Each structure stands twice: as C-alpha cells, then as structure tokens.
Automatic annotation (TrEMBL):
This is GTR5 protein. GO terms for biological process: D-glucose import; dehydroascorbic acid transport. Keywords: Membrane, Transmembrane, Transmembrane helix. GO terms for molecular function: D-glucose transmembrane transporter activity. It is a multi-pass membrane protein. The chain crosses the membrane at residues 6-25, 37-56. It is found in: Membrane. Residues 1-230 form the Major facilitator superfamily (MFS) profile domain. Pfam families: Sugar_tr (PF00083). The gene is Slc2a5_0.
Amino acid sequence: LLLLWSITVSIFGIGGLLGSSGSRYLTVKFGKKKCLLCNNVLMIVAASIMGCSKISQSFEMILIGRFMCGVSAGLCVPLHHQYVGEISPRKLRGFANSTSSFFWTLGKAIGQISGQRELLGSQSLWPMLMASCGLPALVQLVTLPFFPESPPYLLMQKGDQEGCKKAIRQLWGEGQHQAEIDDIMKEKATMKNTKILSVLELVKEPAFRWQLYMIVTLTATIQLCGINAV
C-alpha cells in the first residue's frame, strides 16, 4: 500500500515533466488558446476518472487520473503565463503575470482546507474532492472561446497581421496600437537570428551557468522551506 500510494502521489510530477517538456512544440503548432482548451478537456477527463474510482473500486483509475492531472498541469503552467502575458496591455502585463502565482497558491490552500476530514476529506466524500480539479477547467473551457488567440502568436507564427490587429482591438479596445505591433515585429526579427536552445544545450552553455545556478537554488529553497508542510 505504501508503494502504491507513493507512486500515486509522485506520478503527478512525472506527468508534469512530460507536459511541460511538450508545451513549446504544441504552442508553436496549434497556438496557445487551442492548447489551453484541449488541456481543459484533459483535466476534466482526469477529474472524471478519479471521481469514479470509488464506484468502480479501482485504485488504478486514481493512478491514471493523477498522471493525466500532472500532464495537464505541466502544460498549463507555461501556457497560462504566456497567454496571460501576451493578451494583457503593456502597463498591466506585470500585474497579470503575478496573479498566476497568487491563484495557484490560493488553489493549493483551498484544496488543503477542503481535504480536511470535516469537509470533503471524509470516507464518503473524497471522490468529490479528487474530481473538484475539473471545476476550474470547466469554467475556463466555457469562457475561453470568447477570448481571441494571442496577438503575438497570430503575427509571429501565423503571419496574420489583420488577425493580430483584430485580436488587439478585441482585447484592448479601439485605439492606436501600432507601437505594440511594431514591438512584436521587432521580436519576430530578433528570434529569426536567435538559436533556440534545448534543455541539454542550456545546461552545457557556459554563458547561462550562473543564471541556471540561481534559478535551481531559488526553486530548491522554495521546496525546502516548509511551505508545502504549512
């Protein structure tokens, strides 16, 4: 039992690694909005599988659902940051990106509170707790179609300047947005002359060594500071 539950808990991280590793390829090929929509479907399916595990008397369904949740979360983290940042006007971009961390932390807190035995952590209600991760995904699945695709993606990946302008007007209202379009064009020109490094190449590149050390140290400190225990 200890081995099974250890695998069930840790397989979320394995799924997250796989999901985040494939996020760049998927966003370039399909766009951020489509990827987020499909990712919501994946999370709803995972939630349904875990929610039905008790009725089916199958711990394997929990294992599969946790893995799928991990893949979905791994895809969502970079996708969400990029999409929110790219659809926000420049003066609100920093604030919009910072809200992601706030809501992730809030979600963890709500999950841990809801998991108490007096609430949804009881013997009869725990399937509802495991299925609850599908609720935010369902909300986003219903609301996201009303939002346009990311303007930088339309211009840089698709070369659709009219579509980019239309998306900007829908997001930021009518006005003069040529400066933002020019910035995207400059970024596109810069990226043509920039080599995209793989994870292995990034680790081997001496120029990024100290930045990499700093990020690893900060991330490890967050994990070891006891915040999960709190």
